[in-house]
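Incident review: delayed structure delivery

Summary: a single-chain prediction request sat in the queue longer than the usual turnaround. Root cause was a stuck worker, restarted by the on-call engineer. No data loss occurred. The affected request and its eventual output are reproduced below so the record is complete for anyone auditing the incident later.

Affected input:
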Amino acid sequence: MAGAVRNILFIMCDQLRWDYLSCYGHPSLQTPNLDWLATRSVRFDSSYVQSPVCGPSRASFYTGRTVFSHGSTWNRVPLPVGELTVGDYLRPHGIRTAVVGKTHLFPDVDGMMRLGVDRDSEIGICIAEPGFDPYERDDGIHPSKMVRRSNRTLRYNDWLRELGYVSENPWDEYANSAEGADGTILSGWELRNSNLPARVKEEHSETAYMTDRGIEFITEMGSQPWFLHLSFIKPHWPYMAPAPYHAMYGPTSFVAAQRSDQEREHAHPVYRAFQMHDVSLTLSDDFARETVLRGYMGLVKQIDDHMGRLFRFLKAQGRFRDTMIVFTSDHGDYLGDHWLGEKELFHEQAVRIPLIIYDPSPESDATRNTAEPRFVEAIDLLPTFLEAIAGTVDSSRLEGQSLLPLIRGRTPPAWRDAVFSEIDYSFYPARETLSVAPSQARGYMLRTNQWKYVEFKGYRPQLFDLENDPHEFIDIGDVPEFEPARREMRDRLLTRLLDRRNRVTLTDQQVIERAAQERVNGIVIGQW
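Output delivered after worker restart:
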């Protein structure tokens, strides 16, 4: 029998598109275990991230604040030491808050030094992780150059070596590489290899390993209350799936790319600059796109199968009686749509995410197996967790709204009719192409049911009429007859921007140095 929420299992996939689950309508990628969860939950159909990039998006999930409020504006920009995260809010209620998998946030080393906090002390680890007990912290991007420079031991690598995968970096050479007929190692960083099987056995892959570690944590906790952020590394690139998942999907399984010639002929300058990124040029080719889709879809299917294993464990342990389960993603993946690869911009493929929430409370019985159409944002999850555990939400810092009224069938307070997202694109080649100063490389989105308005500093706005152009092919941002709609959306965007506390971010020189370091570390996406 269901009861009060004692535990929370917060499951996040990396780069999982909302429309690549069968419960969200994918015609050939069947995900029966997540579909099963959805029949016992509320499925949110209009969920959006605060930024279509790993680090800033996750920081918004963890802090309940928008990107330029919490200050971690990109993957290598640390979360300021003074920011409160999930653990800070839940620990006072006796909840152990742990992570298995990825957070992609970096410690504020300068802030810790200023306060005299030892990085290796208990509080230093808590701040650096950020706010999570690092039961199995693994951000999932470990090219050999980065591993050698960091001098940090990766537990997953140690585990693989214990199993006989002999390598300095088995994550790279086994879990994310294939093997040629002549024994040559074929790197998953090269997208041409995305349709080949990874060199690890399926049960030794990242997804299987992280599921095992999540189960181990829950088992160890016994009857003690817990919050577990089970954060899967996949289906983020390298798009390398183990057998048999690498070969489950082919051309008849793929959804056609959503793109039009008009998007290239009438491209906004920032949009055009992103179209020129290597990964965008690669995935604009149909053969390359289909090669990547084999790996991507196989990785999604593998996640669903391990969700089934996890749900069977939870059921056997009686955890469906006292555990809230949240399944979501940190952002999407273009996969060649709109002539783009990766994420970063504001089309639905990048900013819209799946969100399924199971609440054990009997108050949620009336909403089980329902689809909620109202707009929700990533910043809403932390207030939801707080209300579920503590019964109240301190809104002095939090910018989101608790979803419990929607989950439990109560009449909610005045609800939003628009969602907001933003990006700091100063770290990308697009900024250099446009010769924009790092401090000016900012983009903002406001979406209502009818309009999507996008503004990049220094450029004309973009506007899409979603009622008549649901695929966002026709940019009417410079069409005179739509000036009233543009003005209204711009005023609403400015109101949203002003209704928060902004932080000082990195200097232009720091941005340039960190972008250069990313290239030195060997993180290259898009090479064919």
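Verification: The mean pLDDT is 92.
Action items: add queue-age alerting; document worker restart procedure.
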